[in-house]
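Morning, I've got a small favour to ask if you have a moment. I owe you a coffee for this, so here goes:

…
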Amino acid sequence: MKNPTGLYALFDWFKRSAMWIGFIFIYLVDTTILTVATDAAATHPALVNRLIGITLIYSAFLLAFITWRYQKQLSLNNPRHIGRTPFTVEHIFQLIAFFILMLAVQYTWSWLISIHVLSSPANQTALNQQVMRLPFWNLAYSICFAPVIEELIFRGIFLNYFFRSNRRWMNLLGVFVSGLIFGAMHVGSISPTLLMYSALGWILGATYLHFRDIRFNIALHFLNNAMSLL
């Protein structure tokens, strides 16, 4: 697919931006429904059941739609040759190395919190509270669903929407920007915690470019969320 030029290129960029923000919006709708269900857990159990049912149906359609859009996008423009990389022993060890790097970032951050250099991330604190109020569904969502949809949106779709070239500098810039946005979405403010979440996003972005297969990212994100919540 040829890159558009001139005014059409500008229009195309705004169109892609609007579509990507739309993906974020429909994902936030899903998490909001689960948050409302969690808040109602202690006082309105019947309402919780209905909201969980809505969440499951909405999540299924959301996942199907985002996956279809990602695959459609790659069929039209795939400069990085994203596909299916075999799960060899070598690749599994490489994935473990990325996971250890993510753990190192988080353990360093935890150590800084323990010596009162930094405060606990508000996002993680809020998530832990949600898990305590509605354990099964919040754990299932955070560990099983969130890694899939976030990797499709923040790595797969984002890089191919806005950083289409496979040049080294473009890949590095794409990983840097996607990591910052990933961090901002989890923190919601400018603080030292933004750096930690951005660093996790950068590692996930590097994983995507290394393996050229979104499944490795999903596996890594799954492991990270499981270790953080279990």
Observations:
- The chain has eight helices and no strands.
- The radius of gyration is 18 Å.
